[in-house]
Amino acid sequence: MSITCFIRYEIDPFQRESFKEYAENWGRIITRCGGNLVGYFLPHEGTNNIAWGLISFESLASYEAYRARLKSDPESRENFAMAQTKRFIVREERTFLEVVDGTFSVPAVRADR
Q1: Are 29 and 73 in contact, with CB atoms under 8 Å apart?
Q2: Which residue of 23, 32, 84, 93 is surrounded by the most CB atoms within 10 Å?
């Protein structure tokens, strides 16, 4: 079973660039530590203080192994420390989801063709 960790961040909208740097750092760290990064997403239009991160894993056990590797990774610890120091993340929620077969990454099919 594949699972996706869906992270919802409430961010300080005046520190959007700090969150962007934080997310870009995870782009290097997550894959090195064993996660399959789906992506980080910043607010673009509408609500300006909600951002998202999605990371997939083969199982809950592989997620737990990934979390252990994060704790020992120097760049990971540095990124967490930067977030705590700058305080641009107000709140963070994690939900674990599984994909419904036949619904993920389905390419668009135009009706006019």
Answers
A1: yes
A2: 23
13/88 Cα distance (integer angstroms): 8
- Supply the pTM of this predicted model: 0.87
- Calpha distance 10→48 (Å, rounded): 9
3 state DSSP class of 12: coil
Question: CA–CA separation, 24 vs 18, rounded Å?
Answer: 10
**pLDDT per residue as tens, the chain (113 positions):** 589 999 999 999 999 999 999 999 999 999 999 999 999 999 999 999 999 999 999 999 999 999 999 999 999 999 999 999 999 999 999 999 998 888 877 888 888 76
Q: What is the DSSP string of 46-72?
A: S-SSEEEEEEEESSHHHHHHHHHHHHH
For residue 93, how far is the Cα from the chain centroid? 11
94 vs 3: CA distance, rounded Å: 12
